[in-house]
Design goal:
Strand order of the largest sheet: 1-2-4-3-5-6-7-8
Distance between the termini: 48 Å
Number of domains: 1
Number of strands: 8
Radius of gyration: 18 Å
CATH superfamily: Alpha/Beta hydrolase fold, catalytic domain
Strand content: 15-25%
Largest sheet: 8 strands, mixed
């Protein structure tokens, strides 16, 4: 077992151990949070959903864009997360809105279910592109049960309609965004490709192109690239942000991100609707993502 695999197993074990601690409602420095406990679904396991609205939220005065974010239990309050880290979403977006640098927006933080996180976040339609002999590496990670398509059915067909019915949202495609990191970056990309009329843009931080935890003889990045070549939506109607650090897991990503950049460029994407960045010295952690979250936030949410 590689060092990366041992690290991931430790992370999963710690996450399970602190599930009870995560039940506490996050404290935020800006705006307010409402939690929907065990949001029901016909497609996937119920999970908590944390909905953040900015300071001054007033449904009678204005409507808001919506940013759906993966790993919702890690976004707002480090005192209730397993590793004592957070994205600082409320601080970052609150400050940007106060300065009028981004449009008014709410955040829908969708908790992962720990056990089925890999299964729900791995782009399902890329699996047929993976050689059968390598599936023995991937299938245990996704519990032999790909769930990404069902997860997106839950998000698009159940969660989004509920959010739009209960909050003052701008429900159209140009005001609906999605974001995540690592595997959450993969599913955010996949969401826009599968539902291009629902989502206008995606922010994919430290996107886990390897699927597993090694580059050696790994066909998963090529399988994902093959999917992208046939499923990218029209560049005129969408925005995509990708980034990576250079240490820990992020050190694996450069050749794959370079290949993905070429695919997007070949499809006509430009700096107006496609942004890819490297952050030297940054690692694969919420602390790193928090330091640069303002970059994708401004890229996706600036303008009208």
């Amino acid at each position: 077992m590689s060092k990366f695999q041992k690290s991931i197993l430790l992370i999963i074990s710690l996450t399970v151990m602190v599930t009870m601690a995560q039940a506490q409602l996050p404290k935020v420095s800006s705006g307010t949070i409402r939690r929907i406990v065990n949001f029901p679904s016909r497609y996937v396991q119920p999970r908590n959903v944390d909905i953040w609205v900015p300071a001054g939220y007033d449904p009678k005065v204005r409507k808001y864009a919506v940013l759906y974010m993966q790993d919702g239990q890690m976004l707002f309050d480090s005192t209730v997360t397993w590793n004592k880290q957070e994205w600082m979403v409320d601080e970052t977006l609150g400050e940007l809105m106060m300065r009028k640098q981004i449009r008014d927006a709410i955040v829908v933080g969708i908790w992962n279910t720990v056990t089925y996180r890999h299964a729900e976040y791995f782009p399902q339609k890329a699996i047929p592109n993976i050689p059968k002999e390598y599936l023995t590496e991937l299938m245990p990670l996704i519990r032999n049960k790909p769930l990404a398509d069902d997860y997106l059915r839950f998000l698009v067909g159940e969660l989004k309609p509920w959010v739009d019915s209960n909050y003052a949202t701008l429900p159209d495609q140009r005001n609906t965004f999605i974001a995540g990191s690592s595997m959450g970056g993969l599913i955010s990309l996949y969401a826009v490709c599968e539902y291009p009329t629902v989502f206008h843009g995606a922010a994919c931080l430290s996107t886990h192109w390897t699927g597993t935890f090694d580059n050696k003889n790994n066909p998963i990045p090529a399988a994902l690239q093959q999917y992208l070549k046939t499923h990218l939506p029209k560049q005129a109607d969408h925005k995509f942000y990708f980034d990576r650090g250079t240490v820990t897991l992020d050190s694996l990503y450069k050749p794959h991100q370079d290949a993905v950049d070429a695919i997007f460029q070949g499809a006509g994407y430009s700096i107006l609707n496609y942004n890819t960045k490297e952050f030297a010295g940054e690692d694969h952690s919420e602390r790193s993502w928090a330091r640069r979250f303002y970059v994708p936030a401004m890229f996706l949410l600036s303008g009208k």
